[in-house]
From TrEMBL:
The lineage of its organism: Bacteria, Bacillati, Actinomycetota, Actinomycetes, Kitasatosporales. It comes from Streptomyces spirodelae. This is Uncharacterized protein.
Length: 66
C-alpha cells in the first residue's frame, strides 16, 4: 500500500473505509485546516474534474504504480 493511502472517513460515502486518499485541503483564517478524504473510487472521480489539483492525480498515479 502507498503512503498516500490509509484508513479514514470517506466524505462522499459517509462511512469509514479501509483505503482513503486526501482529495482536498481546507484552509481557514484562524486555527488549523483539515484534510478531506475519499475512498479510491471517489478520489478517482474527483481527479477526473478539470480543476482537480495535480497533486491528487500524482497521488493516484503512485497508488496505481504500487
Amino acid at each position: 500500500m502507498s503512503g498516500v493511502v490509509g484508513a479514514g472517513y470517506c466524505l462522499p460515502c459517509g462511512q469509514w473505509c479501509d483505503r482513503t486518499v486526501v482529495v482536498a485541503l481546507v484552509h481557514v483564517n484562524s486555527g488549523p485546516g483539515r484534510a478531506v478524504e475519499a475512498c479510491l473510487p471517489h478520489a478517482r472521480e474527483y481527479a477526473a474534474y478539470p480543476l482537480a489539483p495535480q497533486w491528487l492525480r500524482d497521488d493516484l498515479a503512485a497508488v496505481d504504480a504500487g
